[in-house]
Design a protein that fits this description.
homodimer; 5 helices; 37% helix; three-stranded antiparallel sheet; DNA-binding; alpha+beta; 20% strand
DNA sequence: ACAGCAAACTTGAACTATTCCAGATTAGGG
DNA sequence: CCCTAATCTGGAATAGTTCAAGTTTGCTGT
C-alpha cells in the first residue's frame, strides 16, 4: 500500500517524502477532507509537519493529478484521491456533507453545452445540491 | 427602470433603500461581478456607502431570490441578476472570464443523479471549464 | 558509499475576502 | 408625523491561504 504511493509519486516525477506519503494515506482513508483535517491526520503520524508543507503537498499532488481538489460554494477547499473517472458530488445544504455520484451519462466530459459562447470546453463539473439523509431525518434542522 | 427595482424589492418585503437600488442597477449593467466591483460601481453613485452595506445588501437580495450568487472554484463570490431560469456558466481557466450557458437539457433541475446516495436533490449546478476565445487566440498565454 | 544541487520543508509574517460588533440613521406602518 | 425595527457606518477581527528567507533532504552521477 505504502509502496504503491511511492510508485505513484515516482510515476509523476515527484520526490518521495514522508509528508507526501502521509497526505496520500490520509486521503486514501478519508474522502472529501478539508486542509485542516489533512493537517491533523498527517500530524497524527508526523507531528512536526508544518501547515505550509501540507498546502504545498496538496498543490503538488493536485497539479500532478494524483488528487482532486473540490470547492463547492460556501466551503473551503476539499481533497479526494478518487481521480480520473470524472465523477460528481452531492452536497448537503444543511450540514455540508459530501457524497460521490457517478457521472450522469457515463462519458467524460459527460455534458455538452448547448451554446459554448466561443469557449473551448474541456470539462463539465456538476454539483448536486440537496439534503443528506441525516438532515432530512432530523425534525427541525438546527 | 429604477421604479421597477422598487417594485421588485417591495414584492419580497424588503425596504427600498438607496444602497439596494444602486446594487440592483450595478448588477443590471454588469454580469458576474465580484463584491469589490459592486462596491466600486455603487460608490460611483453613492460615495459614502460602506462595504459592509454592500455585503448585507447582496446577502439580502440573494436570500430573497432577486440576485444569484455564483462561486466557481478559485474565485471570490460573484453575483448576477439573471435568476429563475436555471442557466449555467462557462469559466475560462486562464483568465477567469465567465459566460452564461443555457441549461443543457432545458428542465430545472436539468440533470438527475444516477445514484443519489439517499440525498434529497433540489438542484443541479453545472460549471463548464475551458478556455475563452481571447485566451485561445493568444499564442502563449501569459 | 558520497558529494552536489535543486526540490522540498520550516518558521513566521502578510494578505484577502468576509464577518462581527456597537452605535447612528432611516424607511414605512400606525 | 412619530416610533421602532431594519438598515447602514466605521472599525476591528477572523479564517483560509499564500509569500519569503533560510535550512534540510531526496535523488543523480561518480
Amino acid at each position: 500500500m505504502a509502496s504503491d504511493f511511492e510508485a505513484r509519486l515516482r510515476a509523476v516525477s515527484l520526490r518521495v517524502t514522508r509528508p507526501r506519503l502521509a497526505v496520500l494515506a490520509a486521503l486514501r482513508d478519508h474522502a472529501h477532507v478539508d486542509t485542516d483535517t489533512v493537517i491533523a491526520l498527517v500530524r497524527a503520524q508526523l507531528p512536526r509537519v508544518s501547515h505550509q508543507a501540507v498546502y504545498d503537498v496538496l498543490r503538488a499532488l493536485t497539479e500532478a493529478g494524483l488528487v482532486r481538489r473540490i470547492e463547492p460554494a460556501g466551503t473551503t477547499a476539499r481533497y479526494e484521491s478518487r481521480v480520473g473517472d470524472n465523477h460528481h458530488h452531492v452536497v448537503c445544504r444543511s450540514c455540508g456533507a459530501i457524497a460521490d455520484v457517478d457521472c450522469a451519462v457515463g462519458h467524460a466530459p459527460c455534458l455538452t453545452a448547448s451554446d459554448d459562447q466561443g469557449f473551448v470546453i474541456e470539462e463539465a463539473e456538476v454539483v448536486y445540491w440537496g439534503t443528506c439523509p441525516d438532515c432530512a431525518a432530523r425534525p427541525i434542522d438546527q
